[in-house]
């Protein structure tokens, strides 16, 4: 089951340990890339367009819980 992506008003939180900052994300994507090869044949991606992307799983780096993340509100930036 796909995991929801955080947006400008939300972020991920591990429901097992409370982690808010470290996650391993497995995603599938279809992209079109403009690759420039130098004269030695070394490639460099100069443009990248994401056609579609789906987050497959999220693993917490602190407790290794898999797919135990929820979306929570981000704190306001006002001080």
Radius of gyration over C-alpha positions, nearest whole angstrom: 17 Å
Helices and strands: which structural class? Answer: mainly beta
Q: Main sheet?
A: 2 strands, antiparallel
Which strand order do you get reading across the main beta sheet? 1-4
Please state the average pLDDT score: 91
How much helical structure, as a percent, in the residues? under 10%
- Quick one: how many beta strands? 4
In what range is the share of β-strand residues?
over 45%
Order of helices and strands: EEEE
The rough form would be described as elongated
Instruction: Show unreliable segments.
Output: none
Q: Termini distance?
A: 38 Å
The number of distinct helices, counting runs of at least 4 residues, comes to 0
Explain the overall architecture:
The structure is a single chain. The chain has 79 residues and is an all-beta fold. It has strands at residues 10-14, 23-37, 43-60, 69-73. It is 0% helix and 54% strand. Strand 2 and strand 3 form a beta hairpin.
Q: How is the topology of this model organized?
A:
Blueprint lengths: L9 E5 L8 E15 L5 E18 L8 E5 L6
Antiparallel strand pairs: 1-4, 2-3
The gist of it:
This protein is mainly β and 79 residues long. The protein has strands at residues 10-14, 23-37, 43-60, 69-73.
Q: What brief labels describe this structure?
A:
79 residues, 54% strand, elongated
